[in-house]
Amino acid sequence: MGLLDRLRGEESGVCKFYYDPDDVVFTVSTDTHVIAYAVAISDAECRALRELLEADDAAGDREASLTQAIGGALDDEAADPERIAARVNRPRHVAEGLCTHWESLLDDDPDVVYLPLGAVGELAAYVETVRARDEREEDAFALPESFETVASLLVRLNETTDRAENRVVVHRDRLPSPDGHSTDESPSSEANS
Prior knowledge:
- By secondary structure, this protein is an alpha+beta fold.
- It has a domain of 129 residues.
- It contains 6 helices and 5 strands; from the N terminus they run αβββαααβααβ.
- A hairpin with a 4-residue loop joins strand 1 and strand 2.
- Helix 3 runs antiparallel to helix 4.
């Protein structure tokens, strides 16, 4: 039985972990605990991500212009431009939620933080979006000098999520709040590897 199967448990809301050498059973509630990745992150990496988010904010109101562009493209169709814009902006909100939460957890340099399942894909989408914005001449956005630190962090996070042994069971308090990234969503394809 795999770790995800154990977390889902046979009883609703209960997860049992068996430690064979000592024949010990750990029981945790799925309401309070989730599977995440343990990641070592430095203060410099967290600061670089914060600088990227601040540069994105300083470049202008991307949400209003995005909503207008989507509304114009839909040309009075039934779809809601604000809802579509919210989905397009989700990677940025996830990146901000991760950064804010990690800043509150960093006591040592480096320190271990936790990355929810699926969050690395959202972070990669955000990094790709800001790269594309930087390449557009009409966009006022410019990548900060610390961008390479964010790019190397993303590479390391991808390597971390490729290894199942980096998955841990953590209390939901150790993960970003649902407004940054919901841990209640169904796991991405990372969970199936």
